[in-house]
Write a structure and sequence with these properties.
Radius of gyration: 18 Å
CATH architecture of the largest domain: 3-Layer(aba) Sandwich
Strand content: 15-25%
Number of helices: 9
Largest sheet: 6 strands, mixed
Helix content: 25-40%
Structural class: alpha/beta
Order of helices and strands: EHEHEHEEEHEEEHEHHHEH
Strand order of the largest sheet: 2-1-3-10-4-11
CATH superfamily of the largest domain: Periplasmic binding protein-like II
CATH class of the largest domain: Alpha Beta
Length: 281
Amino acid sequence: MNAMIDRLNIGLVSYLNARPLYFGLQNRLPGARLVFDLPSRLAARMEAGELDLALIPSVEFLRGIPRHDYFALPGACIATRSAVRSVKLLSQLPLTSIRTLALDEGSRTSQALCRIWLESVHAVRPQSIVELPIGTPAEESAADAVLVIGDRAMRIDESRYHTVVDMGKAWNRWTGLPFVFAVWAARPREGIDWDLLTTELVRCRDDGLRHAGEIAAEFAPRLGLTHDECLGYLTKNLNYFLGEPELAGLKLFAAKAEALGLVPERCDVVFHRSRDLACRD
């Protein structure tokens, strides 16, 4: 193992949806420092230079390209080609009546996706947008609509709301493309064998998917979900392969986000060119 790789500071997300991507990572990189935090906070720590590599929201990756020369490692990501279940817009009113919007602070990619979809599909630009703190229940928000993400979105009582939108399904129906929520983003650093690191991360992903049943058994009790619900989420709702359709979806998201001023202008999607890894359809 490359000694520099073994000393990396790596940011990880503790959500169920991220678990397969770093399954066994500590064993593969025993000297690496693994840091767990919310996706948005990992992005802030990346920007501060505290992390060399992190699983961060796609929108933060896009913002970091011109500011810090971020690039993404190919092969693995968190994406969906249909309903995602863990990113939901909960509206007390018909969508066209939304004037105030609360956005879960946990993922800025989902925040951007929600705003892009509301404006582009429903011509809705809320007059007031606030963040919903990670510990605040959605039902306590006074906003017309609330975006919730992560494990708590899977436990929501949807009967309380006028309209519930699964944002993964909404994006797919609108564009015909997958949506990429998070990527492995890296900062340039000399001496790192990025090809080797990419290979190790892909192996972690493959091991994680082979052990999806174990991961589901671990998370189901703490989330209040059944084993089958967790397993279906990992194996049917989510897609961990960064193929050509996912790249196309990510590039379209970048263009839509740029049009709304959510990412810098001319923000090109930059990936490390791995010697050995080809995109998977």
